[in-house]
Amino acid sequence: MSATSPVIVWYRRDLRVDDHPALKAAAETGRPVIPLYVRDAARPWAPGGASQWWLAGSLEALSGDLDALGATLVLRHGAAADAVMALARESGAGAVFFTRHHEPAEAADEAALKTALAAEGIECRRFGGALLFEPEALTTKAGGPFKVFTPFYRAALAKGGIKAPDPAPDRLAAPDAPPAGDRLADWNLTPTAPDWSGGLAETWRPGAAAALQRLDAFLDGGAQAYKTERDRPDMDGTSALSPHLHFGEVSPRRIWHTATFAADARPETRGGIEAFLRELIWREFCHHLLHHWPAIPERAFNPVFDAFPWREDAEALVRWQRGRTGYPIVDAGMRQLWHTGWMHNRVRMIAASFLTKHLLLDWRLGQAWFCDTLVDADLANNAAGWQWVAGSGADAAPYFRVFNPILQGEKFDPAGDYVRKWVPELADLPAKAIHAPWRAGAATPGYPEPLVDHKAARERALLAYRSLKD
DNA sequence: TGAAATGTTGGGGCG
DNA sequence: ACGCCCCAACATTTC
Question: Domain range spanning residue A284?
């Protein structure tokens, strides 16, 4: 390898230049840097529609950020290892640097690439940065992975030592001629006929700059009340950073340190920021789970659930998907998801509980729908979250925990504003009636009757779950 | 990161 | 004046 042979930085879901150890190391070699993104549409769990829309925006933003540093993002398609190898040969690259990812398919790509590079004598270096802690860094006293969140959380806090984020490189050297690549527009990531992405575009701005703005706005504003308001879908109580985090537009270390700094500067925000960072540790927990149990997107973590009597009911599934279950808080959430590609976390739990417990439909159906419609669709968070709700997961909700969608609505959307925003058929109902309109007796044209009776559905769910124990 | 059923307590109405 | 009953309000247990 010559002193001027390029270094390829293989990008995946680390679409940033800030706090990017692989990019930083590439810059420090002083050699030309070729940033590369490979799209493999044939991959298992390839991004769904909403996620693809985000990816397009994120790649465009990254491309601009790299341009400003003097580098050109190259787009290629196909199996990742093959595409990286092809570019390495064409460009005479002497090294490939990348950020370690933890999804099974990503880990398989890494392994394949490593073997291929070694065979041709090209340097291969893997860096951290996608997580605060690599899976090997947090183990129980017995040396195994954690299966329960609280001890995992305690271990993470005790471990500490979260590295300070690195700033972006000042500049990157470029190869004499930029390698050829695909045009982003030719990937057709954004919908055209019909273009259903209007709601997404008016809600979000993908890219690292927007991510950091959102982080700062959250820390200046909502963080203080986060502990209570994060449960309120009628308020902007959450950070809404999930899609930015999913695509790696902001690193978890950047979030950790910025938030910690903000808490030190304004002690009144400490409690809220602690609760916020705890959610970041939930993300770690989910990603570690997927690393150690790569089958959780397909199979129940607790094998007892293989025998669960899930129902088949295509019509009920469609009504849930379209937000026409007759339970206002569930329908509001499902419509928010459809329109904006995002759903408030409290409502995700309610809607997921409704699908798995009230309707007794397989959590995998819900997971698949979320994968296709969420802009923040994340294999680890989604699988762990759905199994948590269904009761089959690690540290799962006990089987008898059935959310009452009426009570949840009254508790967390007390004035009914969230329901009114997303279910216009109910906009004229008073707060007292809005979470159970069928009781009010008032006509609500266009809004369906409840798909199931709460009490009966609850009892049916308890019966089904009890059957597992025998 | 629930909800519902069941149990307990204490104040007030009332014979 | 006293005891009984009713029923919130709260606590505990169970699903």
Answer: 131-163+207-292
